[in-house]
Design the sequence.
DNA sequence: GCCAACGTTGGC
DNA sequence: GCCAACGTTGGC
């Protein structure tokens, strides 16, 4: 079981749209970065990820779960690009903003801070637990 | 809307 | 294989 963080501009694909898909989930297509794709290849069904709104909001708004194996990106014929599907798990009661993360010394090594532009990134277990706590979840998702 | 950071592409 | 040019991301 590993933890991740995925970014989306709410203009293009928002948390509300993700939740509306429910159990069916949604392919995380459109990733055109090798490191991000490699992270998706390392995912297993049942892994959890934070859903982060970039650009607008700049906050962690929800928790999703990997619900498919890696498969070709349906949006392109280029065989290099693959993706997994995510389904919504729960809201973050108090969204954790980028400013919150930067203000917390224990999160200084989080990829969100150190690899700002990476759109699919790993999250360490202690980081995961702390962000859950900051977000107002009683116990980590 | 600007611009810095950074990844990718392509010429040599 | 280097590196300049270019495109994209994402914070501000």
Sequence:
């Amino acid at each position: 079981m590993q933890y991740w963080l995925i970014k989306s501009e709410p203009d293009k694909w928002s948390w509300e749209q993700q939740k509306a898909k429910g159990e069916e989930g949604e392919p995380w297509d459109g990733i055109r970065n090798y490191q991000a794709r490699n992270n998706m290849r390392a995912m297993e069904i049942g892994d959890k990820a934070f859903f982060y709104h970039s650009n607008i909001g700049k906050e962690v708004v929800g928790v999703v779960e990997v619900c498919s194996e890696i498969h070709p990106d349906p949006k392109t014929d280029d065989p290099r690009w693959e993706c997994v599907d995510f389904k919504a798990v729960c809201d973050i009661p108090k969204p954790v903003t980028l400013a919150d993360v930067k203000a917390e010394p224990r999160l200084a090594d989080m990829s969100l801070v150190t690899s700002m532009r990476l759109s699919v990134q790993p999250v360490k277990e202690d980081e995961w637990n702390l962000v859950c706590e900051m977000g107002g979840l009683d116990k980590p998702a």
Q: What stands out?
A: Residues 7, 9, 32-33, 54-55, 58, 98, 116-117, 119 of chain A lie near DNA strand C (CB under 10 Å from a C1'). Helices of chain A lie at 15-21, 34-41, 98-103, 111-114, 125-134. Chain A has one domain: 3-134.
